[in-house]
């Protein structure tokens, strides 16, 4: 019997003072059977940081042809391709060929080793921006992981304040190479 995805419902209010974007999003996220809560929450964080009316979750782990998230224009052309984790450099190179901009949120215990192994190749990808999420950020995000989440996000001066009814965390992703 095949394992099924776990469905998460998120009621998300976003106040992005940096971009003057204010919206309420009712999201349904499917956590693939091989996906961790940590990866799911990093995908949700990426949504918060790049929220728009056209930003969508891709098939992610289920497909090599779709990212974790993407933003497309009215013609269907990909304007922003967002990945999470420590993907292979070839995948990021392919994404740069398909999109105007590629953003990666790198996380995990071995993220610094992954960066040292890939930094030179990734530096050649001028459309790519890589952000590091340290272990504390991921631990903070996991405090919110629940199948029914009600979150409020406020972004100002590059810092995110994410909160629910009981907890608030402050998150500031760091560009790789500056960590």
TrEMBL record:
Q: Where are the transmembrane segments?
A: none
Question: Which InterPro entries does the UniProt entry name for this protein?
Answer: Restrct_endonuc-II-like, YaeQ, YaeQ_sf
Q: Name one Pfam family in it.
A: YaeQ
SMART domains per record: YaeQ
State the PANTHER family in the record. Answer: SUCROSE PHOSPHORYLASE
Query: Protein name, please?
Result: YaeQ family protein
The species this protein belongs to is Viridibacterium curvum
């Amino acid at each position: 019997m095949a394992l099924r995805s776990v469905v998460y419902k998120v009621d998300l209010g976003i106040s992005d003072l940096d971009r003057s974007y204010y919206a309420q999003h009712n999201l349904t996220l499917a956590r693939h059977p091989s996906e961790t809560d940590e990866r799911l929450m990093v995908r949700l964080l990426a949504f918060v940081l790049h929220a728009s009316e056209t930003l969508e979750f891709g098939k992610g782990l289920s497909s090599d042809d779709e990212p974790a998230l993407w933003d497309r224009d009215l013609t269907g052309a990909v304007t922003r391709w967002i990945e999470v984790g420590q993907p292979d450099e070839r995948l990021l190179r392919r994404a740069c060929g398909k999109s105007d901009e590629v953003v990666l949120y790198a996380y995990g215990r071995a993220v610094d080793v992954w960066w040292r192994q890939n930094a030179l190749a990734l530096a050649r990808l001028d459309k790519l921006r890589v952000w590091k999420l340290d272990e504390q950020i991921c631990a903070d995000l996991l405090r919110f992981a629940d199948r029914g989440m009600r979150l409020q996000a406020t972004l100002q001066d590059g810092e995110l304040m994410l909160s629910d009814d009981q907890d608030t965390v402050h998150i500031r992703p760091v560009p790789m190479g500056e960590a």
